[in-house]
Task: inverse folding
């Protein structure tokens, strides 16, 4: 049987438990052999908004996923030059896994933008799309071509990377919002600190 591979794309600045729960839930529901986390290079939606160094985002994602034998992290987006487009991510992973079935996992907020994505029609030919619920965003208003996207309800965690960054900048804890190793990595590298 073809290998079933989930792809969890994100800025992961920093990776948090919302990302991990979403990936874990889709892994179980879709009986995926593996979920590959793919930190973006320069995300086109976030161009110029001061995203942390790709290497820091990559390493935090490695730290966060290390204990799960079904999770891995790919460098395809951070090693490609230029802005990250999902179509390139999917093409690269397809080339690495020619016989696999690919499942692209995306939160309700990102799903809202799916039809406006660069070369959106091609995306559906490269992977199945799995939209996951996210507190604060409704999947009900998302009108997608029927049969293109599976919707999955995941345990609700109202956590965002933006909030984690703001909390660190204000001296508030991010313990239990992100994995312990990520708390320690943020502090070691002094990410998101007010003076930065
Ligand atoms: P930022 O606030 O910087 O945008 P974020 O928390 O939205 O960060 P991203 O790296 O932008 O995290 O998200 C990567 C993917 O994970 C997206 O598809 C997003 O919708 C999804 N996602 C993020 N947080 C959650 C959450 N709490 N529950 C479900 N899905 C989530
Ligand atoms: Mg986001």
Result:
């Amino acid at each position: 049987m073809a290998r079933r591979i989930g792809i969890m794309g994100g800025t992961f600045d920093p990776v948090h438990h919302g990302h991990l729960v979403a990936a874990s839930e889709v892994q179980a529901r879709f009986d995926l052999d593996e979920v590959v986390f793919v930190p973006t290079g320069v995300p086109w939606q976030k161009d110029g908004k001061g995203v942390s160094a790709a290497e820091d985002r990559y390493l935090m994602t490695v730290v966060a996923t290390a204990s799960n034998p079904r999770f891995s992290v790919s460098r395809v987006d951070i090693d490609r030059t230029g802005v990250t487009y999902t179509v390139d991510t999917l093409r690269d992973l397809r080339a690495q896994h020619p016989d696999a079935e690919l499942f692209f996992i995306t939160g309700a907020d990102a799903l809202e933008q799916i039809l406006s994505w660069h070369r959106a029609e091609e995306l559906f030919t490269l992977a199945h799309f799995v939209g996951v619920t996210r507190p604060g965003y409704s999947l009900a208003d998302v009108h997608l071509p029927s049969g293109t996207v599976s919707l999955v309800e995941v345990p609700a965690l109202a956590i965002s990377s933006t909030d984690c960054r703001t909390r660190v900048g204000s001296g508030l804890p991010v313990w239990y919002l992100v994995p312990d190793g990520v708390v320690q990595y943020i502090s070691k590298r002094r990410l998101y600190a007010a003076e930065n």
